[in-house]
Task: structure prediction
Amino acid sequence: QVQLVESGGGLVQSGGSLRLSCAASGSIFSINAMGWYRQAPGKERELVASITNGGSTNYADSVKGRFTISRDNAKNTVYLQMNNLKPEDTAVYYCNARRLFSRHYAHNYDMDYWGKGTLVTVSS
Result:
């Protein structure tokens, strides 16, 4: 089992920045990639960004150039730096960890773990 704990959410004005953190513990040797999903009210959960153990990253088109995913292997922590936030970024953000069998984070995986989520609210 892998436990994921998110932090860093909150209320920010449009154009502002936030950094989310996700601390992983437990059987982290069993996973090889981590990501951030978000779910806005009335919408489906969507993949925002992902990073592999090797450092390869991918982003949703809606956040490219504004969000940066990174990891500190010594702390078993993944970060999501969010800049130039927009009201449409308002959502609950969930940390996720997986064992991937291909380069595509949303497909061909197992060992799927989730955090409880942290709320990000961007006011206009």
